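[Meeting: bench + compute handoff]

Bench side (C.D.) handed over the final construct sequence. Compute side (W.E.) agreed to return the predicted structure before the next meeting so the bench team could plan truncations. Sequence as handed over:
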Amino acid sequence: MQQEQLKSAAGGKTNVDKMAVREWLHANHRRLVKVRFGPEVAMHTVDRKGDKLRTIVFTSIDTLTVEESHVS
């Protein structure tokens, strides 16, 4: 969704989507983090304490596809 659509759907309020995910650091180590999309055009990874680990800015990207996989 475009950021404008997200804001208009929320009645002018900013909208933030969150997902709890497993971040793979290397072959033998992964950690639980939360991924936040919004309210600006960026994706943030946040640790369990709420501290921001990294931010990826998508200002020059029109479409972003996020692929969700399940570990069985």
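W.E. noted at the follow-up: The beta strands are 17-26, 29-37, 42-46, 52-57. C.D. will use this when planning the next construct.
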